[in-house]
From TrEMBL:
InterPro entries: GAF, GAF-like_dom_sf, HATPase_C_sf, HATPase_dom, His_kinase_dom, HisK_dim/P_dom, HisK_dim/P_sf, Sig_transdc_His_kin-like_C. Keywords: ATP-binding, Coiled coil, Kinase, Nucleotide-binding, Phosphoprotein, Transferase, Two-component regulatory system. Residues 176-217 form a coiled coil. This is histidine kinase. Pfam families: GAF, HATPase_c. It catalyses: ATP + protein L-histidine = ADP + protein N-phospho-L-histidine. It comes from Malaciobacter halophilus. Residues 233-455 form the Histidine kinase domain. CDD domains: HisKA. One of its GO terms (molecular function) is ATP binding. The keyword Membrane does not apply. It is an enzyme of class 2 (transferase). Its EC number is 2.7.13.3. PROSITE patterns: HIS_KIN.
Length: 455
């Protein structure tokens, strides 16, 4: 007996915070303590007793599962004490013992008899114990034990059994109250967590929307900034052709005034003017296609995209005495937004040009090297390198940050390289990084920044 009682007076039972597990343990040890065949625990919920745990050594696992399914949603109204002994026990706050269910005249016990009929079971003796918190006097539920056994035979519950369950009921009630409190705390915490998650989700969604809006604004600013750069490129590219047209037209005008007009020469001159205007028209077409918004990703040739960016910037590069050195594998392709990628390359070239103009004197050699190759991991790589003496170590880790610029005095916005990284990583599924490199070209040592794009 003492050994069985230790289960109830062992404080470790208070560490069980799963209510159903605790109730199973309580019912199991209580049944062992008073030697009974079956038992049930009901818990008080609002105005009824709700079934929670059922155990029966005489039934097969199949029937136990069937019984559980039948009564798992069972509710015993607290105003129906005539039908249910558990309700009577709770309402009267007393332990009730029935020696023989089918011989007693004090209670109808219709619920027990219905159970016996369904499962071909025979209930004889019952003891029903209300579970009441010893300090708060709160009614928590009822534990009901069936068919007392003595030496393997059905027997009646004794006064000693009543004293035992009465003695342990307070401790059982304390254990259940703690578990219920833990469940309530957990439920409350889960509810608070759900509310916090909803608020966080709302905040994240708002931040995402704000970031998307800001990205759109930054992208537009970047587009406008590069458009200004492009207009400068067009002005440089048009200056020489327009000068040629002007020279030819002036010559033809003089020939007419001097009566020195020759048909063959005039045709040749007009042909040159037509060819030159075609070149000017092609420049405008390149400009328009460069700023056309890509609606869908596509496969495109990387060398062609690089050559287009170089072509669009050649005039301004030449006016700054900058020479391109290209080494391109023309077989390599990429998948993404072609025009946005071309714009990214142009931004990198413009960045290199600005660095060269600032750090390398006009009488020195100014180079931009562009390499396109496949590396040992079978990935396509673009390297854009200059000889502008490199990026200071104090800022090299910041140059891709939004709004970071070294040109604030000259009107720099710090959106160029930020947008380059946005386009490369988000629209091209590639990576970009920058390092300072020392290298040799034409037997001369140089140092400069190297931007590496890896697909």
């Amino acid at each position: 007996m003492d050994r069985e009682l230790k289960h109830f007076y062992d404080l470790s039972i208070f560490t069980v915070d799963d209510l159903d597990v605790l109730l199973h343990e309580i019912l199991k040890h209580t049944r062992e303590l008073v030697s009974c065949e079956a038992g049930t625990i009901y818990m008080k919920e609002k105005n009824h007793l709700a079934f929670h745990v059922f155990q029966n050594d005489a039934l097969s696992y199949e029937n136990i599962f069937k019984q559980y399914c039948n009564i798992k949603d069972l509710e015993l109204p607290l105003n129906d004490s005539k039908k249910y002994l558990a309700v009577e026990s709770m309402l009267l706050n007393k332990i009730i013992i029935i020696d023989d269910v089918y011989k007693t005249k004090e209670y109808e016990l219709l619920g027990v008899k219905e159970f016996d009929e369904v499962f071909d079971y025979k209930t004889y003796s019952i003891i029903t114990v209300p579970l009441i918190h010893p300090r708060q006097k709160t009614k928590l539920g009822v534990i009901q034990l069936l068919n007392k056994k003595t030496n393997g035979c059905i027997d009646t519950f004794t006064k000693k059994d009543k004293d035992i369950v009465s003695m342990i009921s307070s401790f059982i009630s304390l254990s259940i109250a703690k578990a219920q409190n833990d469940v309530e705390k957990l439920t409350r915490l889960n509810r608070q967590l759900e509310e916090a998650n909803k608020k966080l989700e709302s905040r994240v969604q708002k931040e995402v929307q704000e970031n998307e809006k800001m990205s759109a604004i930054i992208f537009h600013q970047s587009k406008m900034a590069s458009m200004g750069e492009m207009i400068g490129n067009i002005a440089h590219q048009w200056r020489q052709p327009l000068s040629s047209i002007s020279t030819i037209a002036s010559g033809m005008s003089i020939d007419l005034e001097m009566n020195n007009f020759k048909k063959e020469q005039a045709i040749s001159n007009l042909s040159q003017i037509v060819d030159t205007t075609k070149y000017l028209s092609q420049t405008i077409d390149d400009f328009r296609s460069f700023y056309k918004v890509d609606r869908a990703k596509e496969h495109f040739n990387l060398a062609e995209a690089i050559n287009k960016s170089v072509s669009l910037s050649t005039a301004t590069m030449s006016s700054s005495y900058i020479k391109f050195i290209l080494n391109l594998d023309e077989s390599l392709t990429a998948y993404g937004l072609r025009n946005e990628f071309t714009q990214s390359l142009l931004n990198l070239l413009t960045n290199a040009k600005d660095a060269l103009v600032e750090n390398v004197k006009v009488d020195e050699k100014r180079y931009i090297f562009i390499n396109l190759y496949k590396n040992s991991q079978n990935k396509s790589v673009i390297e854009i390198k200059d000889n502008a003496k490199g990026i200071p170590d104090s800022i090299i880790d910041k140059i891709f940050l939004q709004h970071f610029t070294t040109k604030s005095q000259s009107g720099g916005t710090g959106i160029g390289l930020f947008m380059v990284k946005e386009i490369i990583t988000k629209h091209m599924d590639a990576t970009i990084n920058v390092t300072n490199e020392e290298f040799t070209f034409n037997n001369k040592e140089y140092k400069g920044a190297c931007f590496t794009i890896t697909f």
